[in-house]
């Protein structure tokens, strides 16, 4: 679209992108001659693959373990969202212990009669 003579705003409107994203891409293309994504532009990893596996293993072995306990066991300063994300990627959900068993309709009726 650039070579066809479209403006930056026209390209942004057609591509459903922000103006600043098109301008940054435009400038990168004219300065560097490429529109490829720059290396190292992603967020840096706070955990290694081994620590990721360890998080998943802990969640699998003990579903009631807390995020703070996992952080202490790993010895890595990570936020609880990181642990939740790794567990969600492994299709593990947090489980809480029951404080009381749920009552069936029959139990409720017997309790009301009592």
UniProtKB/TrEMBL annotation:
Top-rank taxon, per record: Eukaryota
Domain Transposase Tc1-like positions: 52-114
Pfam families registered for this protein in UniProt: HTH_Tnp_Tc3_2
InterPro entries: Transposase_Tc1-like (IPR002492)
Alphabetized GO MF terms: DNA binding
Example of a GO biological process term: DNA integration
Protein name according to UniProt: HTH_Tnp_Tc3_2 domain-containing protein
């Amino acid at each position: 679209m650039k070579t066809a003579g479209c403006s930056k705003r026209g390209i942004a409107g057609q591509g459903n992108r922000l103006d600043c994203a098109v301008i940054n891409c435009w400038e990168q293309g004219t300065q560097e001659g490429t529109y490829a994504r720059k290396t190292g532009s992603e967020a840096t990893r706070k955990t290694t693959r081994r620590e990721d596996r360890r998080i998943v293993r802990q969640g699998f072995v003990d579903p009631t373990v807390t995020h703070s306990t996992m952080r202490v066991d790993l010895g890595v300063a990570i936020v609880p969202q990181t642990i939740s994300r790794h567990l969600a990627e492994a299709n593990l959900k947090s489980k809480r212990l029951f404080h009381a068993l749920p009552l069936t309709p029959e139990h409720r009726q017997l309790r009301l009669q009592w």
